[in-house]
Specification:
The complex is a heterodimer of chains A (325) and B (256). By secondary structure, chain A is an alpha/beta fold. Chain A has eleven helices and 13 strands. The longest helix of chain A is centred in the last third of the chain and has 19 residues. The chains are: A alpha/beta (325), B mainly alpha (256).
């Protein structure tokens, strides 16, 4: 279990992590979601004691990271796959980490086998592809057979096979009762792996919810209608008391899950339809909406705005969608 | 317990990168070879020297002439051992494995220092014996008064130079910046300060000037240095301690 309590990190003027309080529980995959620059990596570095919090506290099963004896046996992390000396072989990289925590050398061979790097164990890490580097980082995380695992953007730059492998790995680790905490900036990725979801934007907590709840709340279904007699259709729908949202490309969107009544209504008034389809709003859109709000909120509430690394532009798809919601 | 683990780990680290081998072998080869060359030149010039120069000839010190250049390789060794962690990003992996920063840094320094001591002693003894062989009839023997002290001191001097560099690198983190500060300092600034009469009194308290006093067996004429061989080494030890404490203080305070 990882507990964050009012965790805050300030770099000069910029508040990278702003009063985060949440708990990562064992036995599930907790997804840590936020756009680039939201403070995910900073938060994870503070969990590992690499960065000192400005205020607040992180506890791992009640202990501060530097109070844990042989921490690799307790919590394994992949923060940055490039955090390796390129001149050292994969085997020696893992061996020096194992020795520092009193982990037997046999375990190095085991994890190399698990991640499929046995064949290149004696090769220097600087010759590794992005995917191989990621696997080496995961091998290091698994080295101490820890109860808690933390991965920062593990699927970044991986090929589909590698992505599938990581998803399966994380699920199996959680199924063994371990605590798995994984960050991503892609909602679609989280929807496939995470059971619980923590969303942050600009260092603030935006949501702390189960994945199922998040989907139930945010997956809006609507009917898309396209017609050459658009104005007549609008009138007819309006008379019938049906709320319509006009979107780009001449399509209309009607909230609610039923296409049939709209089709019948159009038939009755002899309106030609070119499209009548049931649509499901993606979780990605729900996520963009959530984080776009955080951008807006900050732009209004805190003076030194504009430090946002990669802003979700306002008035873009996600924000537009919100009006119809 | 934890310290023993870290020392094993740091030993694996240091033996598994190529820079360890080439910096340390460069330190040995350059020091010994240059010492032999200067010894050979001295032997050839001996007959044309004034009687006074012959009297103050310090064959031990002459065989260490290569150390002024060889120490630069020791500096590179000391800098790379520490700053490699930063330039590669390995520091984050290392501190996640060993979160107690004192254990991490001093474990690393212990291993690197032990290695530097072995190579430094080998260098010093080799430079002495080969230099004396080249000097032939004008050479000193290990049993002569003060000679063993100078030869052991030479090994300690090389080791302390490496340690000082580790401390500076721990403070500055970047290998280029650390070398950019240390190289000109030891190769130019210290020499200039030590040889210009106006600054000589300050210059001789610099780490290399003070530390290298132990390499001399026969003091130069008109030598008014206010410390002896061990006193000078003591001054160098203080510099090293300051650099290491500074490096640790910054490591402790900073985000990795």
């Amino acid at each position: 279990m990882i507990e964050l309590e009012g965790l805050t990190k300030r770099y000069d003027e910029k508040l990278a992590v702003n009063n985060l309080t949440f708990t990562v529980r064992p036995g599930v995959v907790t997804g840590f979601l936020g756009p680039n620059g939201a403070g995910k990596s900073t938060t994870m570095r503070m969990v590992l004691g690499l960065d000192h919090p400005t205020s607040g506290d992180v506890r791992i099963d009640g202990k501060r990271y530097d109070q844990i004896e042989d921490p690799l046996r307790y919590i394994g992390a992949l923060l940055d796959a490039k955090a390796v000396h390129g001149g050292r072989s994969a085997f020696n990289h893992l061996l020096c980490l194992a020795q520092s925590n009193g982990i037997p050398a046999d375990r190095v061979h085991e994890v190399l086998d698990t991640v499929g790097l046995t064949g290149v164990a004696r090769k220097k890490a600087k010759g590794f592809s992005l995917g191989m580097g990621q696997r080496l980082g995961i091998a290091a995380a698994l080295l101490g057979d820890p109860r808690i695992l933390m991965f920062d953007e593990p699927v970044n730059g991986l090929d589909p096979e590698g992505i599938h492998w990581i998803r399966t790995l994380m699920k199996s680790l959680a199924a063994q009762g371990r605590t798995v905490f994984v960050s991503s900036h892609l909602m679609s990725e989280m929807a496939l792996t995470a059971d619980h979801l923590v969303v942050i934007g600009q260092g603030r907590l935006l949501a702390d919810t189960s994945m199922a709840d998040f989907i139930a709340k945010n997956s809006r279904s609507y009917v898309r209608v396209r017609s050459p007699q658009r104005e007549r259709l609008l009138d007819v729908l309006h008379e019938a008391g049906i709320t319509v949202v006009e979107t780009g490309g001449g399509a209309l969107e009607v909230d609610g899950g039923k296409a049939e009544p709209i089709g019948e209504l159009a038939a009755r008034h002899q309106i030609v339809l070119h499209e009548l389809s049931l649509q499901q709003a993606s979780l990605e859109e729900a996520f963009m909406r959530l984080t776009a709000q955080s951008v807006e909120y900050h732009a209004h509430s805190e003076a030194p705005g504009g430090t946002w690394a990669q802003p979700v532009p306002r008035g873009e798809w996600g924000a537009d969608w919100k009006k119809g919601a | 317990m934890a310290m023993a683990h870290v020392i094993r780990s740091e030993w694996t680290k240091i033996r598994s990168v190529a820079s360890t081998v080439w910096t340390l072998s460069a330190a040995l080869v350059v020091t010994v070879a240059l010492g032999m060359l200067i010894s050979a030149l001295t032997r050839r010039e001996f007959d044309s020297m004034s009687p006074r120069d012959r009297l103050t000839l310090d064959p031990t010190f002459i065989s260490f002439a290569g150390m002024s250049l060889g120490q630069l390789a020791m500096i590179v060794f000391g800098v790379l051992v520490v700053s490699n962690e930063y330039s590669t990003g390995m520091i984050r992996t290392s501190l996640a494995a060993v979160p107690r920063r004192a254990t991490f840094l001093f474990g690393k320094i212990t291993v690197a220092t032990a290695l530097a001591l072995v190579v430094g002693m080998a260098t010093s003894f080799l430079a002495f014996f080969l230099g004396q062989t080249v000097l032939g009839p004008h050479g000193a023997r290990l049993g002569d008064p003060g000679v063993l002290r100078a030869v052991v001191g030479g090994g300690l001097y090389m080791t302390l130079i490496a340690m000082f560099s580790m401390g500076i690198a721990a403070m500055l983190r970047s290998p280029m910046l650390s070398l950019g500060v240390l190289m000109p300092f030891f190769f130019l600034i210290s020499n200039i300060l030590g040889n210009v009469s106006a600054t000589k009194k300050i210059g001789r308290f610099l780490p290399d000037q003070a530390g290298s006093r132990i390499l001399q067996v026969v003091p130069g004429t008109g030598d008014d240095t206010p410390y002896g061989p061990w006193g000078g080494l003591g001054i160098m030890v203080l510099w090293v301690a300051a650099a290491l404490i500074g490096g640790y203080a910054l490591l402790k305070k900073r985000d990795a």
